[in-house]
Amino acid sequence: MLLLLSVLVLLTQPPTSWGANVTTLPQKPLIENCTLVTCSPLEIGLPDLDGKEGPLGEKEDPDIAALWRQVKALQIAFLQYKKVELFPHGRVVGQKVFKAAGFQKPFQEAQQVCAQAGGQLPSPRSEAENHALQQLVQVEDKGNAFLSMTFSKVEGRFTYPGGESLVYTNWAPWEPNNDGGNEHCVEIFTNGKWNDRPCGDKRLVICEFCALGLGGAAKVQEAGPDPCAANMTRKS
Amino acid sequence: MLLLLSVLVLLTQPPTSWGANVTTLPQKPLIENCTLVTCSPLEIGLPDLDGKEGPLGEKEDPDIAALWRQVKALQIAFLQYKKVELFPHGRVVGQKVFKAAGFQKPFQEAQQVCAQAGGQLPSPRSEAENHALQQLVQVEDKGNAFLSMTFSKVEGRFTYPGGESLVYTNWAPWEPNNDGGNEHCVEIFTNGKWNDRPCGDKRLVICEFCALGLGGAAKVQEAGPDPCAANMTRKS
Amino acid sequence: MLLLLSVLVLLTQPPTSWGANVTTLPQKPLIENCTLVTCSPLEIGLPDLDGKEGPLGEKEDPDIAALWRQVKALQIAFLQYKKVELFPHGRVVGQKVFKAAGFQKPFQEAQQVCAQAGGQLPSPRSEAENHALQQLVQVEDKGNAFLSMTFSKVEGRFTYPGGESLVYTNWAPWEPNNDGGNEHCVEIFTNGKWNDRPCGDKRLVICEFCALGLGGAAKVQEAGPDPCAANMTRKS
């Protein structure tokens, strides 16, 4: 109990900036907890503890029962505000949230905008993710949007930030064609198809945000596998 | 304990799409829990458990006390972000959140936009709800907005989606007048008054989202009583 | 236990308007809890309770363990949606969230817009807060924004709402200069510098929202110290 109180005391020092003076306790991968909380309301499966019989047949501590209610209420309120938040400039697909900025930028600035916000440019890795992006581009009605991927001269092909090979593509017919010899970036059309473009062109900015996104908002997302997918592999 | 662990194991299988592989445990109607959590900060009434005396005079489990703190902190953070989220394109009235899309659509597309977002077109059922909608229409400065209600030839009057009769109206003087013989939809003016319009006209899209909205985002909201009100009646 | 159940019964009466019929239980200042929950995911330090050994070496109640998981999951989901919400029209600095409205108003209307939303005009009290505001003004690309401060004829200087003296300033060279004799309000430039302006001018509306903001949305924020800072002093 002294250990827990000491930790709480350490955690309660007023930080000069967020993150200062915070002790990190070890934690397990938490993908399973994301599953529990992001289901639709009908799938919130919490035992009904109301001071009477619990799921285990025992009398439940009324404080735990009251706490269960508070948590359930928070989950429901949170689910409502998730829907409100995503309307109309966001889409959620599994662990990923795509959100449109409403303005256009050249690729490098677009990349920075997303990084500063704690996200990254979109890396659609499936038909479902690509379709969600397509919907956003249509709704926003501000032209095509940049994706995260760029042409790597070293690899001789398009890759995700960090160099990983593409696991899904949706190039328009005859693309990428490097028209003009300087098309190292990728845009997504309102029909969902991809086309290579010069990175200096201004395109609609959409960012993707992961449930267990890595911290450090003011840097481009770390190299490596898609953070939204990485959490799933960590589970094993 | 084995039952609970088994349920947790079942709940932690990676879903291919959200909602798969989730076991639903029985739950009571939860309106009272929404009440507990959506009050203003001054009304968050949680016992102060800090490892010492609980409200019942007993020594509290320090883990429960720590958990209470986490839940309280989440409630406070959530309340702040609710306010941030609603500014400036949203309004909350009781269980309902109205949010403006910022664009205009004909009625049928507007209906689909709201359904896909997990909400529906607004059904103001009281002066308070109507006033909140009016404020939004004024703030958005994008013309009048569609309401959910339509003229039913069968009933010979305007009804909510699903056919229920209107419980509140705020028609402008001499409206509805079916001007032109094809005014089966309803718009709300910046002064809050209603007028019937052709459904093919483009109007500002505003959607309403309920705390306990039914799932299934990609379908028009089920027929029946207002889901935001239905939760209240379920309580009894 | 009877007391707790009675409170829950009182709290579950259907309110005609939010806040009615709610009993307020006493609560401690909660700044330390905000620290616990608003850190980046890597700083969420909750003991790992999974039905086995707890941090204290004892066997944990499986219901408490399950509840910990739910709370952890909610924290993670909430952190993701915080990032999504703030992109692109918001910035968070410590306890404060700044959010831009996207439209311009004269000072008095801007003040009312923020008050009705449960916030207030921005009072940047540090370089960090001012920098966050500057970023927003740049991103919004809608001209300069009003700050909360006004010239008090009584005091003969600019003050915060309520009369407190400024603790931080960032006036542009030679400002404030009361050009025209009627410059009692303050705007912030895209370079972050301040200038005094007539209050009747229309400027971009940005509001600030505090974690423990006082209730009562439809009134201008109470006089007194910055509510975002007040919570910190209450801690002692």
TrEMBL record, chains A, B, C:
<dbReference type="InterPro" id="IPR051663">
    <property type="entry name" value="CLec_Tetranectin-domain"/>
</dbReference>
<feature type="domain" description="C-type lectin">
    <location>
        <begin position="93"/>
        <end position="208"/>
    </location>
</feature>
<dbReference type="GO" id="GO:0001503">
    <property type="term" value="P:ossification"/>
</dbReference>
<dbReference type="GO" id="GO:0008083">
    <property type="term" value="F:growth factor activity"/>
</dbReference>
<dbReference type="InterPro" id="IPR001304">
    <property type="entry name" value="C-type_lectin-like"/>
</dbReference>
<dbReference type="InterPro" id="IPR016187">
    <property type="entry name" value="CTDL_fold"/>
</dbReference>
<feature type="signal peptide">
    <location>
        <begin position="1"/>
        <end position="19"/>
    </location>
</feature>
<keyword id="KW-0732">Signal</keyword>
<protein>
    <submittedName>
        <fullName>Pulmonary surfactant-associated protein D</fullName>
    </submittedName>
</protein>
<dbReference type="Pfam" id="PF09006">
    <property type="entry name" value="Surfac_D-trimer"/>
</dbReference>
<dbReference type="InterPro" id="IPR015097">
    <property type="entry name" value="Surfac_D-trimer"/>
</dbReference>
<keyword id="KW-0379">Hydroxylation</keyword>
<dbReference type="InterPro" id="IPR016186">
    <property type="entry name" value="C-type_lectin-like/link_sf"/>
</dbReference>
<dbReference type="Pfam" id="PF00059">
    <property type="entry name" value="Lectin_C"/>
</dbReference>
<keyword id="KW-0964">Secreted</keyword>
<dbReference type="GO" id="GO:0005615">
    <property type="term" value="C:extracellular space"/>
</dbReference>
<dbReference type="InterPro" id="IPR018378">
    <property type="entry name" value="C-type_lectin_CS"/>
</dbReference>
<keyword id="KW-0430">Lectin</keyword>
<dbReference type="GO" id="GO:0030246">
    <property type="term" value="F:carbohydrate binding"/>
</dbReference>
<keyword id="KW-1015">Disulfide bond</keyword>
